[in-house]
User: Fold these one by one.
Assistant:
Number 1:
Amino acid sequence: MLVADTRFWEEFVSSSQELRQPCHYPGFFAGEPVSIHDFEEVFRAATRQPADSGLTIRVYVDGGHRADDYERVMTDPPRPDESLEDWAARLFGERKFGIVLNGAESVSESLSRQVARFLDPFFARRGVPYGGIDVAFFVGNYGFTPFGIHVDDRTHVLHAHLGPGTKEMSLWDPAVYQKHRGSLADCYEPETMLPFGQTFAIRPQDLFYLPAGYFHVGNTPRFSVALAVSFIELSNKELLELAVLEEINAQSSQLGTRLAPIRDDRPAAAWSAAADADVPLATWLRRSVVAYRLGLLSNHGLRQSPELVSCDPAALPGTSLATVKPFRMHLHEREGQPPMLLVRRRRIPVLAHPRVPSLLARLDEGEALAVDDVVRELSGECSGADVTAWLARLVAAGGLEIQSP
């Protein structure tokens, strides 16, 4: 299973020279890093996702994209009790294939919790990267990575290898790569570059770290499955772009109104954000960045929110609720606007009651709260139905969970 303590992460930061050098840990995991059944469930979940979901799948067969094979993957998931390897053999037969799936955290709460707990000691030491964490996996017997030798400038990747086949990962320092390649362009004939790089044989239960900035290519001649957990860095420009886009999407109803014509009789300092004519643009941008940061922290760095689960408010009385560790809900106090609660990268309005912040603080400290007690504490200004409906939204979003008796 995915387990690593603080001592390992301290050694990892040192061995990788502050995340700048590759590291290989043979036999790191005792058994499978994660259950192969989690991967099978992700493919089953993919068939019910809308086109604009956070889950993306790329399918390569015999080295190229094929629309019919992609459709087959998306419409014919593993059957009940069918292994991933048997499913792949049924879909692709003897052909060489590769499936790259990103955003698995959006459809697998099990993987989300495992990855979050795995990284928790690391984040406590280093903090959460602004670009977040992507949970991906590679499946297939495709030989060399279909997109050739390439470089990721801002993405650091931890590979947890499930096997059963061995994966070879070849790396090149950019200066070495340019010297022998003649340029920094991607290379689709990796064999010609292998003598000049460093190749690691990644076997089942191994952990491998690939830092950003290295040209690299994988080679998987036999069927294997690998989990890839990516840390994504951002520049200030990229942060602003993402934060503003997220804010725009959150305020789509307000931003849909037509703008009044521009007048040149007002100083630029008086111009306001289109989203709110009473809020200066600088304030609006600052709010956007704060909301983005709190949203990312609420999901422990994971880029995608989990699927909403069903929670009936009528079933909550008589139960107790606690936060889903290691995730934390974050209260976003906004001047001139009602506060907002960030829950697993979702924005949920806060009940208008002065005791709500203290209740949230108790939950954050690990206390389990009886729903009946919460209803009594918020009575007067909030009806019991409003309180249980709000708590049900927090459960549905993955911020709270019902405690076993």
Number 2:
Amino acid sequence: MNPKRLDEIEALLDEKPFRAWWVDLKAVRAELRAVRERKQGIDEQLVELELSSERHQKLAIDALDSGSEAEERAAALDAEVSRIENQAIAMVGAFEDQRARASDGWVKLGAAEKRLEEASERLAAKKATVSGDASRLAAEVERLTREHRIAKETYDRESSRKESMWREVESLWTRAAELGLLGVEKRLQAGSKKKEAERHLQDAEREKARVTSLGSEIAAVDESLAELEKRAVGRLALAKEKLGAMVGDSFLYWPCSDDDKQVWCLSLVSDSSTYGIEVEPLSIYRATVRDGVSGLEESPLFEAEEVDSDCG
């Protein structure tokens, strides 16, 4: 590798072979960057689709579980409604028996009231005539009064029991209706959850199909990427052959003619962070062979005119 002076490198940058090489390298790198961005975009889509497909599958499982729980709940409610209805039917039979007892008590109470009323009237009549039968009638009235009281207590008790039993019957019918209505809701919810699960599974399948399609697409992009990377490497190799330079990824190097421990560094990229200073394309720096571009001088020694410098 022949050492060069700075002015020799400056002159080299103005020659047509270098300019043609530079335009060709930029074009390949621009195309390479576009394909890499395309690959990154596809990779991001793949990640999103795979995550979304997994999410839809999980949601489908959750929906199926919820639907099964709703179906089980509906079946349990149906069984409970049947049990309550049977209980209510039995209670209605018991109520009818109780109503008969209450009716019988009502009849007996009416008869006791009538006997007491008639005896009380006879007693009043006897007292008015100062008859000797008054004491006997008074005793009879007292007895009939006790019978009336007992008849009333019996009727009140049986009637209260009848009313209580009817309230229980009504409560059972109401509870059966309430659970029946809830069962209808649960069955509809089960159907809705099954449909929801089907939608999620369909979405998951569509996304899986898209993943497969993108897999084919990314294979083509990888093939293009490999070809472009090969072309880019080939363009850099031409710099060694035609320009007499040592070749890196982002710099070309020539030994300094005045110091064999230093090299001229020609930047091929625009970069403000990697090298400790801001470098621009076609700017020439000086560095030691030992340190390389980690020890670039702060200011370039030469900057060629560059219209489109975005070739990193």
Number 3:
Amino acid sequence: MESKHSDKLVQFSLRELLVGLGVAALGLAAMRYGGVLRDLLQTGCAVLVIFAMISALVDHGRRRAFAIGFVIAALAYSGLLFLQDGREFNFLTARFATSKMLRPIRESMVTERWVGGTAQSQNPGVSAAPRQGMAVIRSAPGAGNLLRAGHTLWTLFFGYLGGKAAVLVYYRRCQETREHADLPA
């Protein structure tokens, strides 16, 4: 017999979708601009992990299962990052797939501008071939800011998946307990 809750585990509520989109928007802004936005994202992540720890200790049922799964997954990923001695916060030395997946995001944020030469080549939208004496100015978000904000987003994502997995295990355990209670002695 299938649990009545198992089909809801793969569904997302509107609240989860809106919170996820808000966190993703803040994360992308933090990747691009760093500074206060990155600090806000990292502080928010720390506060969420702390609240999840408290919920894991004092809450009951499904919420407790989610909190335990969230904390375990988020701390496991963060722990793995910090065991790397900073390698994962530099694109040249990064080995994790999560770090490598952030590189295209950084490349999409690079802006180029040709300077020098004729005024026509400096106008946006005009495709003029670069001439001798011209230089390109590349502007990109700092790799450290981008990777720190990106890994914060990965921490929240893995925490969320860990929470969902824990709820799945919780419902399965509840279902098995009910089935064993229905067996004749």
